[in-house]
Input
Amino acid sequence: MPETQRKILIIKLAALGDFVQALGPFAAIARHHQDDHLTLLTTDPYVEMARATGMFDQVLSDSKPRGLAFGQWLALRRTLRSGGYARVYDLQTSDRSSFYRRLFWPSPSPEWSGIARGCSHPHDNPGRDLMHTIERQAEQLQVAGIETVSDAMADLSGLDAPVVRFAVPDKFALLVVGGAAHRPEKRWPIERYAELAKRLLGCDLTPVLIGGPAETEAMDLITADCPQALNLCGQTSLLEIAGLARLARLSVGNDSGPMHLIVGLGCPSVVLYSHASDPRLCGQRGPKVSYIRKPDLADVGVDEVMEALELA
Output
């Protein structure tokens, strides 16, 4: 590393939707520090995606030590202190990531952009929690001297992977039927997805179902009612989801992490919201996205979704 090159650390640990919405800020930091050495500290599920962006010189995985796991805490402290970082951009801005600033003690802390007490570039807007994630991060970086932040993902060609092994047809629609297991109120009833799958078939679009193992039962119910649907439950990596999103004609899903990735890559999409989350604060960003929000998702009909997809 050249002697004049500074070492910069970015912290972004989770979750998928938040990671996707940090891609614009990542790019802005990379442009601002184009002559410096850039390291990302993230967690295992996002290491491959982070490397695929090509924006980082190094990607580190955080084990997120808990409680009295002294060995893990010491290992993390050694990693941080040995990095020689001149500046840290904490885009996680959680109690955990703010605590990491203390791990540099007794050495002086690097310059720090975030909300940690005593940091050099604090984002201290009292209304920050009422801002959309994209605008909040942009304002945080402006405080640190980075003026231009884009949430665009269209130029991120590295977020892709071959999907030939799935044998998807030429015309297909992605259905993202799952969501956080502990937030069932964020899920559209599975029988509505089954009905939507059949309606999409009538429009010459093969439904392609994606989700994790937790969605096995729900996705099996859909394919039992609509056998022509392609069930990829538990089979897709994040980069393969990106590859599918680039080919799909459209997508429909609950407010979930994969929908942030699909929407951000430009797939025309409808995202379904209940009272449990607010698109004004965390909505998926992309060139072709619309939201349907009702207090109870059971009140959202298939006709309404078809109309939003301009297929009615």
